[in-house]
Amino acid sequence: DASAKELARTAETTAETYATDHEGGYVGMILAELKKYETGLASCPSTANACLLKSEGTTTTYTVETEAANTKDKFSITRNGSGEISRSCTSGPSKTGCAGGESSSW
Length: 106
Known about the structure:
Layout: H1 2-21, H2 31-37, E1 51-57, E2 62-67, E3 74-79, E4 85-90, E5 103-105
Antiparallel strand pairs: 1-2, 2-3, 3-4, 4-5
């Protein structure tokens, strides 16, 4: 799960770089666009490494989501319209991968 969290943080930084080049917004911030900025963002599915599952943005918000290869836990970082960042985890098949439960923040 650590590698999926690290990948989510890399995607978060890349999203902010994308916004710098797009007048402060995140519209059009799809996976392919993020990969133009950071080629190390691995796409899903991947059975060997953490991968970037989702990237979406609006004028003032975005979400990036990664998946851990071994547990299938999903880690999201979301920026709301006020600029606040939240991080969430959704457990994979084990239902206990996010701080012992099905979901949590990280």
